[in-house]
Design brief:
single chain, alpha+beta, four-stranded antiparallel β-sheet, about 15% helix, about 40% strand, elongated
Length: about 210
């Protein structure tokens, strides 16, 4: 079992021990470690990239057995992990923005169910309990509400209850989430709401960072 340091730490460099390093059949290797700071792809968030002992980590995936770091060369023994901090911060900003968008939509009675926080395709999906009664708002109004919350610069709050990690900022409602997030909301910067669409009973709010 891999210890998931990224759940409660923001470190982008640490040491670990290699548990296994197996070829994947396509010239790459799947590396399991005793602990990791690399966030695997999942929950709508891209995986971290970086290096293990200066060997490139091109992707990280979560399997039922372990977190696997996909590398372009073999690694062994005691190793140094370094996450690309620029990519991590971008992913954290996008994912955190998605949470605030979810909160604003929930306040409108839309009920956030999932999100995609990949750069260039970020969106939050809502599934209203009574789609026929949904009242959409325009992008400008929604954007203003999101950015007003962000500028309050609330501090991140992480908790774990019965094995479920929750994330919020200040006294805002918390969401179950295993992703990485900014320490204070103003790190997100300004959010642009690009489109709000209602189709087949679902509301999609597409967004980007300005």
């Amino acid at each position: 079992m891999t210890e998931l340091l990224y759940l409660f730490e923001d470190s982008t460099e640490c040491t670990a021990s290699v548990l296994s390093c197996l070829p994947t059949g396509d010239g790459l290797y799947a590396v399991a470690l005793d602990r990791t700071i690399f966030h695997p792809q999942g929950g709508g968030q891209p995986s971290d990239i970086g290096t293990i002992n200066n060997v490139s980590v091109v992707k990280v995936v979560h399997t039922p057995e372990a977190v696997l770091h996909i590398t372009d060369r073999e690694v062994a023994g005691e190793v140094v992990l370094k996450v690309n901090s620029e990519k991590r911060h971008l992913h954290s900003r996008l994912h955190s923005a998605g949470h605030i968008i979810g909160l604003v939509g929930d306040q409108l009675g839309w009920h956030a169910t999932r999100g995609n926080h990949f750069p260039g395709e970020a969106r939050v999906i809502f599934e209203p309990h009574v789609p026929a009664s949904v009242q959409l708002v325009d992008c400008v109004q929604f954007q203003a509400q999101v950015n007003q919350i962000i500028t309050q610069a609330f501090v991140r709050v992480l908790n774990e209850n019965n094995g479920i990690r929750t994330v919020t900022w200040g006294d805002l409602p918390a969401y179950p989430c295993g992703g990485t997030h900014v320490k204070t909301l103003n790190e997100i910067g300004q959010v642009e709401i690009k489109k709000i669409k209602l189709k087949k009973g679902q509301i999609t709010v597409s967004y980007a960072l300005i």
